[in-house]
Amino acid sequence: QVQLVESGGGLVQPGGSLTLSCAASVSGNIFRLRGWYRQAPAKQRELVATFLSGGITNYADSVKGRFTISRDNAKNTVNLQMNSLKPEDTAVYYCRVQTLSGMDYWGKGTLVTVST
Fold first, then answer.
1. Is residue 67 a contact partner of residue 49, using CB atoms and an 8 Å limit?
2. What are phi and psi of 87, to 5 degrees?
3. Strand pairing partners for 36?
4. What is the pLDDT of residue 72?
5. DSSP class per residue in the chain
6. CB 79 within 8 A of CB 18
7. Bridge partners of 33?
8. Of 56, 70, 92, 99, which is most buried by a Cβ count within 10 Å?
9. pLDDT band at 96, cuts 50/70/90?
């Protein structure tokens, strides 16, 4: 069982920045996917950015050039640096990991609100 805890959400003005962090309860090279997804009101959950095994990153077109996903192996976290935030980035952001055996785990989510 893997537990994920997200942090870093909040209210920010358009054009501002936030950094989200996701801490996993287990360490080691056991994940083949780590990343961030989001769900805006009345919309389906969508991919934001992911790390795949081998270091491959994948970003949604809507966040390319503004968001950066990174990992801190020492702290066992995966982070999402979000710059130039827009009102349409408002959503609940979820951390997801998938183990090498294919088990999926999700965090409870952290709310990001971009508004004046």
1. yes
2. -55, -35
3. 49, 95
4. 86
5. ---EEEE--EEE-TT--EEEEEEES--SS-EEEEEEEEE-TTS--EEEEEEETTTEEEE-TTTTTTEEEEEETTTTEEEEEE-S--GGG-EEEEEEEEETT--EEE---EEEEE--
6. no
7. 52, 98
8. 92
9. very high
